[in-house]
Amino acid sequence: MPSPRTSTPTSTTGTDFLLYVLFAAVGLGFGAGSLAWLFGNLAESLIGSSGPWTAYEPMAALLHASDAWPRLPRVALVIACYVLPVLTVLAAALVGGGIWLRLRGNPKGLAGQRELASLLPKEGAAKSISLRPSLTGSKPKNVAPNDRGVLLGTLQPGRREIRSSWEDVLLAIMAPRSGKTSGLAIPAILRAPGPVLLTSNKAANDAFTATFDARAGVGRVWTLDPQQIAHADRTMWWDILADARDLAGARRLAGHFVTACVDESSAGDFWSTAAANTLTALFLAAANDGRPITDVLGWLASPADRTPVDLLHDVGLEAVAAQLHGTVAGAVETRDGIFETARQYASCLLDPGIASWVTPPSNAAEVWEFQPEAFATSRDTLFLLSKDGGGSASAIIAAAADAVMRAAVIQAERDGGRLDPPLLAILDEAANVCKIKDLPDLYSHLGSRGVIPITILQSYRQGQRVWGDTGMDALWSASTIKLIGSGIDDADFADKLSRLVGDHDVPTVSVSTSESGRSTSVSMRQERVLPADAIRALPKGSALLLATGIRPALLGLKPWYREPDADRLATASAKATAAITERAVGKVVDQNEFGKAA
């Protein structure tokens, strides 16, 4: 007895596709024939005779229309039996496709509109009303889009806008030239309903020039540019010691100078800890005596100077004075090592051009003092610009950003717990020019106070370099909205994302044959929704959205240059860039003339 022949299970996607095409063709032909029969009879009733309708024969009506209605004019016959059915089928396909896209779940295992309902206009508007007292009493349909939250992009496939709420805190990991500035930072700045803070290491043809003019029409624009990234005139100064009058504030300020110079692997050793304690004591002494921060440089240069110790005694800070005295009176080699380390941390203040931005000006009438407390309740914009690398003013930038966010939190507590309108803090190049040591801890409560940070990194490892593995994991976990852009070349991180996105069921068709005939079986197997290589190959202008409590979704970014007013913004950006160039050229000319005169 011959044994049955069994073929190795194989996928039959090609056969299935042809079968589906056949079914679709039959369905379209039947539908078009039915429409041709309907419209042909209607045309006959209106133009020809009023007799009984032609018998229902769809294919005859479609293929032999002239035989079915011989008395109809040819033009009417073509319109009724061919043009109108085609237009009706197309219209039905468009409407049906739109409804299907709206109601269906994402077949690839990613989130669709139903899962992202909380980030869509209806629920987003209702939530913004509950979060912002100024919107109380408004109807959700009357809430402006920009009052709902930060625009993240549009759901793919489709065009529905996805916005975070005003209590979400954001983390964006995007490689250079993946759209992080044009598709995220700039649109967020332009749409912000309240004050905006931006850190950056670029000015020309970047967020600074693209948004300067627009934000100037909303409120005052402050530019802290100690290293002349934008060659901005010094029309503002900030008292960097304003919050250093108590021990906690002085320690935070010292921490910014330390963090700007060391990475996580070097933090916490003897020399960095001792130098941080010394800077804390010196900042505390200068702040309580109303001295500029530049006096600290003089004390660092002369470790034996007892002035800061005496000033600490005068204000009752005996323990801090004793600690500083112990350092000064200790072994000379140890003391000099500590003070030299502290001098390296504060070295950016040696540049008078940098120090002038954080010390009282001589011409107070022309230079305005920036006050974080007032900024928190305004609609102003603060641009914090600095170069990265050694000798940069990144410690000052981090201290300013930290002061603004903490002032906003204090103001929110005074206003009942939440800042309205919210403050948007876009920390672009955060790992280079805005290293706030405890940023992961701040993330856990900033959103609940109406302070919305958007930390933008180029890679996950960049964050690990600044905050360490534990700190970066904490920042990742505390971020309620995460955006992953194109250019993720870290294999471990890409695999981690792939596992977070998860698996979905994929049908596998197997065919076997025997003497009794052919049988087909369908089994399900699990497959990664987005393998690591697919995450690495995300196209530019797209981003993977990971929101708390929601399946991951794929978004298309909405860059500013594709908006309706892009021409106006481009013109303003070009004008601002030209102004930067003109100021830079003017300084070069001045330097050359000074050299000739000398």
Automatic annotation (TrEMBL):
Membrane topology: Multi-pass membrane protein
Residue ranges crossing the lipid bilayer per the database entry: none
Keyword presence, Transmembrane: yes
InterPro entries the record matches: P-loop_NTPase, T4SS-coupling_protein, TraG-D_C
One matching Pfam family: TraG-D_C
GO annotations of cellular component type: plasma membrane
Chief location of this protein within or outside the cell: membrane
Source organism of the structure: Streptomyces lavendulae subsp. lavendulae
Keywords noted in UniProt: Cell membrane, Membrane, Transmembrane, Transmembrane helix
The protein's name in its UniProt record: TraM recognition site of TraD and TraG
Subcellular location: Cell membrane
